[in-house]
Every structure is written in structure tokens, then in C-alpha cells.
Fold this sequence. Notes:
Elements: E1 2-7, E2 11-13, E3 18-26, E4 33-39, E5 45-52, E6 57-60, E7 68-73, E8 78-83, E9 92-99, E10 113-114, E11 118-123
Amino acid sequence: QVQLVESGGRLVQAGDSLRVSCAASGRTASSVTMAWFRQAPGKGREFVAGIIRSDDITNYAESVRGRFTISSDNAKNTVTLQMNDLKVEDTAVYYCAAGPKMRVVSNGRFYSYWGQGTQVTVSS
């Protein structure tokens, strides 16, 4: 089992920056791929960013590319999402996910473990 705990979500204004983090514990060897997904009110879950920690390969949704950066501290088993130039449409609950090494990091079906989520609210 892998436990994931997100932190850092809060209310910010449009244009602000915010960093959310995900701490993994337990069988972290099973969390080669880690990612952030988000779910806005009334909408489905969508992929935001992912990282294959063993190869340091990252992938981003088109809507956040150039504004968000995902990084991993393998020694601390944490993954961080740095979000810059936040927009109102970035408002959502952000979930951390972990799973084995995979070819398609954007597909939530391949992730075995999920955190409880952290709320990010961007006001205009």
C-alpha cells in the first residue's frame, strides 16, 4: 500500500503562484509514476501533470503547459506541483496519484493509489 497526502491548496487570486505537494509513504517503490489530476465542480477528473520518477520524464496537459511544473524529490518521496499565473479555471480539487511505470501517464485508470485531494481556489 501507498499512502498519499496532499497539502498546500488555498484561496489565491488570478495571476498568483501556488505550490501544492504530495507526500508518499508506505510501499513507495510502487509509486514510480506520480501525477496530479484535478476535478472542478460539476466536471470530470482531468489530468494535469505527471512524472516518471525513475527517468525524470514529465508530461503536462495542454491547458497548464508553460505555467505548471511538476517535480519529484525521490529522497523525500514527495512530488510538488508549482503553479504560476493561475487562472480562475484552475479552480478545482487537486488529487495526487501514484502507480507503476507506465507509457500513458495521463490515464487515471493506470494509477493504483490516490490522495484525498487539496482545494485550490482562484478568484478573479
